[in-house]
Design brief:
Elements: H1 4-12, E1 15-18, E2 21-24, H2 27-30, H3 37-51, E3 59-63, H4 68-78, E4 82-85, E5 96-101, E6 106-111, E7 119-127, H5 131-143, E8 146-155, H6 160-167, E9 171-180, E10 183-186
Parallel strand pairs: 3-4, 3-7, 7-8, 8-9
Antiparallel strand pairs: 1-2, 5-6, 9-10
Helix pairs in contact: 1-3, 3-4
């Protein structure tokens, strides 16, 4: 696993403070300054290797907004449709709301197009506090949607193992980072 484009871009990523939270501004997590095809392919190819280990599933699911480029690339490569958990309420029959709390915000997300018995994988850009992922997994559990695995491009937190154990779902990150003294450090 070389991930040279991802590693280089992480080392170059600016970091801003949001209160006590060190926010890494990166193309995969923010679309800033832009996502190169090489970077997107680097990350989606690595995710695809891990996803293929989990066998068949009905749908790729991601959260709005920055999981969308990853889900799009994976959908094209794997020939599997994807669903976006949106920040907007549509009021459609069967719509389910999710309370999302992250390290720097609180809001609602809305799930449409998934139902009891669906088998999915979740892909997302970053995991920091785990607030969004916990909320989504909790709702999927109540909905009786089977989550075969969760695939995160960049893990910036220390919550993967506890969330995986809590929901009995494997969680794979492509790269693990930390911010130390205002700089990105890639964990081995």
């Amino acid at each position: 696993m070389s991930l040279e484009h991802l590693k280089k871009s992480l080392y170059e990523a600016p970091i801003v403070k949001k209160g006590d939270y060190d926010y890494v501004i990166h193309p995969i997590t923010d679309g800033v300054p832009y996502i190169t095809p090489e970077l997107l392919k680097d990350v989606s190819n690595e995710m695809k290797k891990h996803i293929k280990k989990y066998g068949k599933f009905d749908r790729i699911v991601t959260m709005e907004a920055m999981g969308i480029p990853l889900a799009s690339a994976l959908s094209l490569d794997l020939g599997i449709p994807f669903t976006i958990i949106r920040k907007r309420e549509y009021g459609l029959p069967g719509e389910v709301s999710v309370e999302q709390v992250t390290g720097y915000s609180k809001s609602k997300l809305y799930i449409n197009g998934l139902q009891r018995g669906d088998t999915i994988v979740i892909v997302d850009d970053v995991l920091s506090t785990g607030g969004t992922l916990r909320a989504v997994l909790s709702v999927f559990k109540k909905m009786s949607v089977t989550v075969k695995g969760v695939f995160i491009a960049i893990n910036k937190g220390s919550h993967i193992q506890e969330i995986s154990k809590e929901f009995n779902v494997p969680i794979t990150s492509i790269i693990d980072i930390d911010v130390v003294n205002g700089e990105v450090v890639i964990k081995s």
